[in-house]
């Protein structure tokens, strides 16, 4: 197929006109930060190393049950999805991984797919199983659940699917499996809670038994939807318990959209990291439910507080592995690639602000019970415009000073439409 890619020379060329003004704002900010004992080089280094996986299902326009308005030039093959992530990575230098969903993304030619990913400098992060839909030619239906189903043969089919997903991921170099279940019930009395949980535990253990030694299993939780009365893995506590019972390679996965309103997600993060069980992280934002909208578009301060705990955990909890980061968003009306660029920027911004927090001073203020100073320390960091740091990080890695501007000025979407056609559609959610 036609390959869309943006080479570094092109980006450098486009960066030229903003270079001088960037240098001015960067110098101004770094002088100020250095005066406050901030190690700017260290922050730049951390920002450029921070890579977030893009899920293969986020590259087309999503939609709701009321309709789906597809976006022109959507990727319709796995190759094209990888090319799209390549574009994001070339511009932002932050999207160095793709997360596949099976069976939507089963490769035909593994070697060719791997080579394509290498050519874009992206790796295969967690592979995702799908037991929330019935697949073509499936013998059994997941209508009444998968890993939790009352019927043994249905559970076995779902377990086998997860093992198949592991084997596909192995061939691509993935190192983790994410399990998200839609299992639950729509009406009181429909399910026996205890049986459903017990079956889920047993099924997860069977999957865990097939996990290679150097792999991790991430157990995602969600309070409701698609089931509206109960969900088997409804919260972090249930996920944590299941992960503990499976073993040391099993972890909880936090998706920002999977909490009831006003949950203290930053505290959940702290608890899981203390216990060494935060394995994966899905970014998105929401106002009402699992809205999956652009990261940082609704609650940027909460995102910053969450990053504060993530940074603290990464520095103080060697018992917790480095988490697998992914954006789990969908795009109803925006160009998916533009939306993802905005999300990546918001993630880096929250991370940079969290890195500005003077942990020693915060600790001192906490010990003195100086609540006002504690708040000032957090808010001083939050109120700093860190965008020049993000730009500097991108500049040093060959990315774009302004990814969105370059995306538009290179007419990337127009080129994708020419290459793929107006009606090209992505499979997925
Ligand atoms: C469903 O809510 C969901 O968004 C979960 O977050 C999964 O990670 C994703 O779909 C794909 O399975
Ligand atoms: Mn998710
Ligand atoms: Mn979700």
TrEMBL record:
InterPro entries: L-rhamnose_isomerase (IPR050337), Xyl_isomerase-like_sf (IPR036237)
Entry annotated with the keyword Metal-binding: yes
Keyword Membrane: no
A molecular-function term among this protein's GO annotations: isomerase activity
Source superkingdom: Bacteria
Keywords, alphabetical: Isomerase, Manganese, Metal-binding
PANTHER family according to UniProt: L-RHAMNOSE ISOMERASE (PTHR30268:SF0)
Protein name (record): L-rhamnose isomerase / sugar isomerase
Organism placement in taxonomy: Bacteria, Pseudomonadati, Bacteroidota, Flavobacteriia, Flavobacteriales
């Amino acid at each position: 197929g036609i390959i869309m890619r943006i080479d570094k020379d092109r980006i450098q060329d486009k960066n030229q006109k903003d270079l001088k003004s960037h240098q001015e704002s960067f110098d101004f900010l770094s002088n100020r930060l250095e005066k406050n004992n901030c190690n700017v080089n260290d922050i730049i280094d951390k920002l450029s190393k921070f890579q977030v996986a893009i899920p293969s299902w986020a590259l087309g326009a999503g939609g709701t049950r009321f309709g789906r308005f597809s976006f022109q030039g959507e990727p319709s093959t796995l190759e094209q999805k990888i090319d799209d992530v390549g574009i994001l990575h070339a511009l932002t230098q932050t999207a160095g991984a793709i997360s596949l969903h099976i069976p939507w993304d089963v490769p035909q030619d593994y070697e060719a797919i791997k080579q394509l990913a290498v050519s874009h400098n992206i790796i295969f992060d967690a592979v995702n199983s799908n037991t929330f839909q019935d697949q073509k030619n499936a013998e059994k239906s997941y209508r009444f659940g998968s890993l939790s189903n009352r019927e043994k043969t249905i559970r076995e089919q779902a377990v086998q699917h997860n093992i198949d997903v592991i084997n596909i991921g192995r061939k691509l170099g993935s190192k983790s499996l994410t399990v998200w279940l839609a299992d639950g019930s729509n009406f009181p009395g429909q399910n026996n809670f205890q049986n459903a949980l017990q079956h889920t535990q047993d099924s997860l253990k069977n999957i865990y038994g097939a996990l290679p030694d150097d792999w991790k299993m991430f157990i995602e939780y969600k309070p409701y939807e698609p089931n509206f009365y109960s969900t088997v893995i409804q919260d972090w506590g249930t996920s944590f318990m299941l992960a503990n019972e499976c073993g040391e390679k099993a972890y909880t996965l936090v998706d920002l959209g999977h909490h009831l309103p006003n949950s203290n997600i930053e505290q959940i993060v702290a608890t899981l990291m203390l216990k060494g069980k935060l394995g994966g992280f899905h970014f998105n934002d929401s106002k009402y439910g699992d809205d999956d909208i652009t990261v940082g578009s609704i609650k940027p301060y909460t995102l910053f507080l969450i990053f504060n705990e993530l940074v603290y955990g990464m520095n103080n909890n060697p018992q917790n592995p480095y988490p697998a980061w992914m954006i789990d968003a969908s795009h109803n009306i925006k160009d998916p690639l533009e939306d993802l660029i905005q999300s990546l920027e918001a993630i880096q911004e929250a991370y940079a602000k969290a890195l500005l927090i003077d942990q020693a001073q915060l600790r001192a203020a906490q010990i003195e019970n100086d609540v006002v100073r504690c708040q000032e320390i957090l808010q001083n960091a939050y109120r700093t415009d860190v965008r020049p740091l993000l730009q500097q990080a991108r500049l040093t890695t060959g990315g774009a000073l302004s990814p969105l501007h370059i995306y538009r000025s290179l007419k990337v979407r127009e080129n994708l439409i020419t290459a793929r056609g107006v009606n090209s559609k992505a499979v997925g959610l």
